[in-house]
UniProtKB/TrEMBL annotation, chain A:
Chief localization: periplasm
Keywords for the protein's UniProt record, in alphabetical order: Signal
Family stated for the protein in its record: Belongs to the bacterial solute-binding protein 1 family.
Name the record gives this protein: Sugar ABC transporter substrate-binding protein
Species assigned in the record: Sinisalibacter aestuarii
From TrEMBL, chain B:
InterPro entries: BP-dep_ABC_trans_perm, MetI-like, MetI-like_sf
UniProt name for this protein: Mannitol ABC transporter permease
Residue ranges of every copy of the ABC transmembrane type-1 domain listed in the record: 72-262
Protein family: Belongs to the binding-protein-dependent transport system permease family.
Topology class, membrane: Multi-pass membrane protein
Localization in the cell: Cell membrane
SUPFAM superfamilies, alphabetized: MetI-like (SSF161098)
Transmembrane segments: 12-36, 76-96, 108-129, 141-163, 184-209, 240-261
Length: 433, 276
């Protein structure tokens, strides 16, 4: 064998090996939210930089949750990256189902991730999923209706002010309702809102011994306040309303105020979809003076299931999709208002992003929620609007059904709370707490 | 007089039939209407939806964002494949039960039907683990088998009912003429049972086309049919009715058209034997 042939063979072997190592196709499971759709559109940039191709599996949120939970718990290996939330991440991290993201390169600047997000996506101090976008909740209100009612919305209102304003803005004959709030049953629907609200009233899911707390005066006050407010100033059929139903009511000009996810700000101010786009103001979620506000904290994050064959390529994708450069790439292609919010400190230090009307209020809302210390009294759990234990999704949805039935007038607040207490206690007993 | 009553009755029956038909079809009609609206218009009150402007935007977005053809081919493969595979197993089974019944035939039939009463999610984990072991996750072969197994009880029941209507004497006569079992089933039984078999095939293609539990849970990127295509257009945060409606219309159109053209066979097959 001549030297030339040997050299050629060696070279081709190197090419074969490197191309085999580099050109992978990774499969990513995700939800159909605007920021994810934009990410899919920009994947060519990732492929150009790394050579890796991406296959997307987009599913409805509940289907996705069931689908990825089945896959990760059985080590099915169908996905190399999963889009998961702040609820799943610490639980899955604890189970050893996710690859720890503790070796991110220096240029990724992991310290730039907002502390609240990093805390909520870690278990035992180790980051298990990188935030793609984060959100909190805040008040979105109609500036014109507020002015007509002779009121001035403070940046950080109390629940009493919100109630008085809602009643003053309500004009049921003209289908204007002072406040639109979630009522549809589900741990991520009405219970997200009510758990966060209860935090502001000094209530909590469990005491430090994991005893349910629905029999406390704080829960009674929180639930009664919500039911009375919705009775006086809420839209009809509110027990069926979730995020999208309230969004459509607000966009049609039927709500004076709406307290919900900060991500809604970009929808209600979008003149193509909203009839009230130029009349929307923002304020922090209300409090009752006890030191906690009723706003939640959530992140859609990217995690890598343990056991994937393509861990390196998956890590490269996460580094790309949650980097500072990606935010700049979106800004360049779609404008600053469409940059995925709530993940990095540097975004909020960017003077161009500061021009976006809801940027500051989103950051303030995120910063005022602390998943590690969510309530007035101490609790044994992590999570602002949820309790990060595997059983929570099940019993919280049942509690949500009781509260939704109370909103629909099928039972009193006392009855709903008694049932909530009993079924949560049963579930916790069965789970061995 | 008698004639007038009949005409009145007929008119009344026709009106009632149309009203019931429209009520049943209305959700599909509304989906089709919404698919030609903008997202902003799609959430307006019903009357405003009808009077707002029409647009193809949602179809353009869906076309651009998803690979409709890939999902369509998967749907066709899964529904036709599972139905044909089901027939191969069901025809001999139904023949045996219809023409050579034993004491336990009735019980076997009931037992087969009882498997339909088990909630699918109850066996999700066992089947998922089996699929991992066999390397069948996200494969069309695996799904064809699962969909076939799910619909097999219905195929056997339907064929059994049709076969029962065929006089056993005809088969006996064929046997006396020297037909083998294979010839008896292929050349005597099958031609007589064609209407029934046609409606069985059509109904099972429709059932497999619409199946949305296993097709979502056992697929990822490669074998996903149109049910996954629809599921990708629902959003927890943001307006999506128009795009979801466009995706749904595109997904149901082929099966709706097939049902339209084959409605005669479907109705004839489904009512076959009902008069006796």
């Amino acid at each position: 064998m001549t030297k030339t042939i040997r050299a050629l063979m060696g070279a081709s072997a190197v090419v074969a090996l490197t191309s085999g190592a580099f050109a992978e196709t990774i499969t990513i499971a995700t939800v159909n939210n605007g920021d994810m759709i934009r990410m899919q559109g920009l994947t060519a940039d990732f492929t150009a930089k790394t050579g890796h191709e991406v296959e997307w599996v987009t599913l409805e949120e509940n289907v996705l949750r069931q689908r990825v939970t089945t896959d990760i718990s059985t080590k099915g290996g169908q996905f190399d990256i999963m889009t998961i939330g702040m609820y799943e991440t610490p639980i899955w991290g604890k189970n050893g189902w996710l690859v720890p993201l503790d070796d991110l390169p220096a240029e990724y600047d992991v310290d730039d991730i907002l502390p609240a997000m990093r805390g909520g996506l870690s278990y035992d101090g180790t980051l298990y999923a990188a935030p793609f976008y984060g959100e909190s909740s805040m008040i979105m209100y109609r500036t014109d209706l507020m002015e007509a009612a002779g009121l001035d919305m403070p940046d950080a209102p109390t629940w009493d002010f919100v109630r008085d304003a809602a009643i003053a803005m309500t004009d049921k004959d003209n289908e204007i309702y002072g406040i639109c709030l979630r009522g549809k049953a589900g741990w991520g629907e009405n219970m997200a809102f009510l758990t966060a609200t209860a935090n502001a009233f000094g209530a909590r899911w469990f005491d430090e011994n994991w005893t349910p707390q629905f029999d406390t005066p704080q829960w009674k006050e929180a639930l009664t306040f919500y039911l009375d407010l919705m009775d006086q100033a809420g839209p009809p059929g509110a027990s069926n309303n979730g995020f999208n139903e309230n969004l459509s009511l607000f966009q049609q000009g039927k709500c004076g105020m709406w307290i919900d996810a900060t991500v809604a700000a970009s929808f209600v101010t979008n003149a193509d979809e909203s009839t009230v786009a130029d009349k929307v103001g923002f304020a922090l979620a209300p409090d009752t003076g006890l030191g906690k506000r009723g706003n939640w904290l959530w992140a859609w994050a990217l995690g890598i299931p343990a056991g994937t064959q393509k861990e390196d390529a998956a890590k490269q994708f996460i580094e790309w999709a949650t980097s500072k450069e990606y935010l700049a790439l979106v800004a360049e292609n779609e404008g600053w208002a469409n940059v995925p919010p709530g993940s990095r400190t540097s975004l909020y230090e960017n003077p161009e992003y500061a021009q976006v009307p809801f940027a500051k209020m989103t950051l303030d809302s995120i910063n005022s929620a602390d998943p590690l210390n969510p309530t007035v009294d101490p609790v044994p759990y992590v999570g602002v609007q949820f309790v990060a234990i595997p059983e929570f999704a099940g019993f919280a949805t049942e509690v949500g059904q009781e509260f939704s039935a109370a909103l629909a007038g099928q039972q009193t607040a006392d009855e709903a709370l008694a049932k909530a207490q009993a079924l949560t206690a049963d579930a916790m007993d069965a789970a061995g707490y | 007089m008698a004639r007038a009553v009949t005409t009145q009755r007929k008119t009344l029956n026709t009106i009632i039939a149309w009203v019931i038909g429209l009520v049943i079809f209305f959700p599909i009609l509304w989906i089709i209407i919404l698919s030609f609206k903008s997202e902003g218009d799609a959430i307006r009150p019903p009357l405003e939806v009808l009077t707002s402007s029409w647009t193809f935007d949602s179809y353009a977005v869906v076309q651009e964002r998803s690979d409709y053809f890939k999902h369509f081919v998967n749907s066709v493969t899964l529904s036709v494949g599972s139905t044909l595979l089901g027939l191969i197993i069901a025809v001999p089974a139904a023949w045996a039960m219809a023409f050579v019944p034993s004491k336990s035939t009735r019980n076997i039939l009931m037992w087969m039907l009882s498997t339909k009463m088990l909630p699918a999610v109850g066996v999700l984990y066992p089947i998922y683990l089996l699929f991992i072991r066999l390397g069948l996750l996200d494969s069309r072969i695996g799904l064809v088998v699962v969909l076939m197994l799910i619909n097999l009880p219905i195929i056997i029941w339907m064929l059994y009912t049709y076969f029962k209507e065929i006089p056993g004497e005809i088969l006996e006569a064929a046997r006396m003429d020297g037909a083998t079992l294979r010839e008896e089933i292929l050349y005597v039984l099958t031609p007589m049972a064609i209407p029934g078999m046609a409606s069985t095939v059509l109904l099972n293609i429709i059932l497999a086309w619409n199946e949305a539990f296993w097709t979502l849970n056992l697929t990822a990127a490669k074998a996903a049919p149109l049910t996954a295509f629809i599921a990708s257009y629902s959003s927890p945060e943001g307006l999506f009715y128009a795009k979801l409606s466009a995706a749904s219309t595109m997904a149901i159109a082929p099966i709706l058209i097939m049902g339209w053209f084959s409605q005669k066979q479907l109705v004839r097959g489904l009512t076959f034997g009902a008069v006796k």
